[in-house]
Automatic annotation (TrEMBL), chain A:
One of its GO terms (molecular function) is ATP binding. It is a peripheral membrane protein. This is ABC transporter ATP-binding protein. Keywords: Antibiotic resistance, ATP-binding, Nucleotide-binding, Transport.
UniProtKB/TrEMBL annotation, chain B:
The keyword Manganese does not apply. Its main location: membrane. The chain crosses the membrane at residues 37-58, 70-92, 119-140, 152-173, 180-202, 240-258. It comes from the Bacteria. Pfam families: ABC2_membrane. InterPro entries: ABC2_TM, ABC2_TM_bact-type, ABC_2_transport, Nod_factor_ABC_transporter. It is found in: Cell membrane; Membrane. Keywords: Antibiotic resistance, Cell membrane, Membrane, Transmembrane, Transmembrane helix, Transport. Belongs to the ABC-2 integral membrane protein family. Residues 35-261 form the ABC transmembrane type-2 domain. It is a multi-pass membrane protein. This is Transport permease protein.
Length: 311, 261
């Protein structure tokens, strides 16, 4: 990845709808050529942020620069539009237009479009090319919108929940496309509330909640953070955790999360496991389903927001 | 699988290509829509045949019944496409995010509006051709087309009528919900059909309401077309003035109040 100006630079973005503050001082930088996932629950401000970058919303405060241009300025937005690809969260296509007709039309609005038939085949749209948009399945509609976002060979693509409602096969095709875009130097900004999607695709993840970025980094950085790896096991309920805690190193936490389910959090190394199992031996406890785990993005999110991501 | 390269090579297509593509798409969408065809083709044709053949409403002016009715139904054709059809289609495009998505494409908004106007004009040419053939088969003898001023007057009336009705249709589509636009555009179509001098002469209405009805754009269009095509008059300046005023006000209001989402 070459060092160059960021593809997207957002500082202190604020957007209000009446009394409601949708985005509340959001900062985000997207490096050119990278894939960035904006992760957060519904209502976190993901779509508002993306749509401000696309020129649909005017910022109430803060600055937004996309490819060095201000999407809130009509003249600059006009220069920006041919350079970006946009996939809306839903809709955006004439209900009576046929799938390939619409893709071909979008290609005609661009100077050097991709080969329409090849792109359609890649996304599995060739078999429904003559079907009207309103008769396509939800997954086919999503893939058509995705194809329309990339057909003009943009430098930067905004995908708002590109895999929402897709079956595993279609989801894989979408992931492959995003990986190929990255391989060829296209910058991708996508929103999602699927943890695995963000972990699979993104160079960097911004976790958004309440209209702000509450954590940002590579998937590894976010999951590693300050230790807190886990050991889970099942045993009879009501073990004396006090004596276990005394045996374990300082900074380790032990809890019975539900009756009979135990969670040990700390720096999990072989020494800790040995201590744990010898305590079990002394106490006459058989630790069943003993599992050593790394913190997942799901845990990180839960910890940061106190809420489940899909809630 | 082949190795498509997605390497960026962005850029807008030449304006002419974008305009042609968008006009073609808009026209196909319009002609493919069954309800729209009912409105733009079937209703005017059926009314022309029915009212020419059967003495339901007494017509006025010289010539046969069809000489009164044909100009009125040409006016109705403009109303159905430029106003009713365009309002309904644009209202639903707005609701389905079509206009929003196009707003992020290289196509400028004015070019989208130009393309919409182009597709309305293409449809009107087809309507005028069809209605003229039907009317000629029914014995229509149009006047005024032999002189340059008559032909120019007819063209000018049709264009100004299209501008006025497009402005009103887009104003409605850009401010109301899609369902409200659907209902209101159809209601206005029926009211103007009945009270705009299309098939019922305005002289049949009470004197008190006549000045109001005569100021409607549909009345100006049907009266203007009739004064040339039925009576062989030269430029009907009064009707042209009324249509021009409606066009300016409606288009300005649409430009001011149209909301894209």
């Amino acid at each position: 990845m070459q060092t160059s100006a960021p593809a997207v630079a957002i500082t202190g973005l604020v957007k209000r709808y009446g009394d409601r503050t949708a985005v509340d001082g959001l900062d985000l930088t997207v490096a050119t050529g990278s894939v960035t996932a904006v992760l957060g629950p519904n209502g976190a401000g993901k779509t508002t942020t993306i749509e401000t970058c696309e020129g649909y919303r005017r910022a109430d405060a803060g600055t937004v620069r996309v490819l060095g241009l201000d999407p809130g300025d009509p003249a600059q937005a006009a220069r920006l539009r041919p350079r970006i690809g946009v996939m809306l969260q839903s809709g955006g296509i004439y209900p009576g237009a046929r799938a390939l007709e619409m893709l071909r039309h979008t290609a005609k609005l661009h100077a050097h479009p991709l080969d329409v038939d090849e792109l359609a085949a890649r996304l599995g749209l060739d078999s429904c090319g003559r079907t009207a948009y309103r008769r396509l399945s939800g997954g086919q509609q999503q893939r058509l919108a995705l194809a329309m976002a990339v057909v003009g060979r943009p430098e930067l693509v905004f995908l708002d929940e590109p895999t929402a409602g897709l079956d595993p096969h279609a989801r894989q095709a979408t992931w492959d496309l995003v990986r190929n875009l990255r391989r060829d130097g296209v910058t991708v900004v996508l929103t999602t509330h699927h943890m695995d999607e963000a972990e699979q695709l993104a160079d960097r993840i911004a976790i958004v909640d309440g209209g702000r970025v509450i954590a940002e980094g590579t998937p590894e950085e976010l999951c590693r953070s300050d230790a807190a790896d886990t050991v889970r096991f099942r045993a009879r309920p009501g073990l004396d955790l006090g004596s276990l805690l005394k045996a374990l190193p300082d900074g380790t936490a032990v809890a019975e999360s539900t009756p009979g389910s135990y969670l040990v959090e700390g720096v999990v190394d072989p020494q800790l496991l040995a201590t744990l199992t010898s305590w079990c031996a002394q106490s006459g406890v058989m630790p069943e389903q003993l599992a050593v785990g790394r913190r997942t993005l799901e845990d990180v999110f839960l910890e940061l927001t106190g809420r489940d991501l899909r809630a | 699988m082949s190795t498509t390269s997605y390497a960026p090579q962005p850029g807008a297509a030449p304006l002419g290509r974008m305009l042609r593509a968008q006009t073609g798409l808009e026209t196909r969408m319009l002609l493919r829509n069954g309800e729209q065809l009912l409105l733009t083709v079937v209703i005017p044709s059926v009314l022309l045949v029915l009212f020419s053949a059967v003495d339901i409403v007494a017509t006025t002016g010289p010539g046969a019944r069809v000489d009164f009715l044909a100009p009125g139904l040409l006016a109705l054709a403009v109303l159905s496409t430029a106003f009713t059809g365009q309002a309904i289609a644009t209202g639903f495009e707005r609701r389905y995010g079509v206009l929003k998505r196009l707003g992020a494409s290289p196509l400028p908004r004015w070019a989208l509006m130009t393309a919409k106007t182009g597709s309305v004009l293409v449809t009107e040419v087809l309507q005028v051709a069809l209605l003229s053939v039907i009317a000629l088969l029914l014995g229509w003898h149009p006047h005024g087309l032999g002189t340059p001023s008559g032909a120019v007057a007819v063209l000018l009336l049709l264009l100004l009528g299209t501008a006025a009705f497009s402005g009103l249709g887009l104003l409605m589509a850009g401010t109301l919900r899609a369902e409200a636009t659907l209902a209101a555009a159809n209601l206005v179509f029926i009211l103007l059909l009945l009270a705009g001098g299309v098939i019922v002469p305005l002289s049949r209405f009470p004197g008190a309401v006549r000045p109001v009805l005569e100021a409607l754009p549909i009345s100006a269009l049907s009266d203007g077309l009739r004064s040339v095509l039925q009576q062989g008059a030269a430029m009907p300046w009064g009707d042209i003035g009324i249509l021009a005023a409606w066009a300016v006000v409606a288009l300005a209001a649409a430009a001011r109040f149209f909301r894209w989402e």
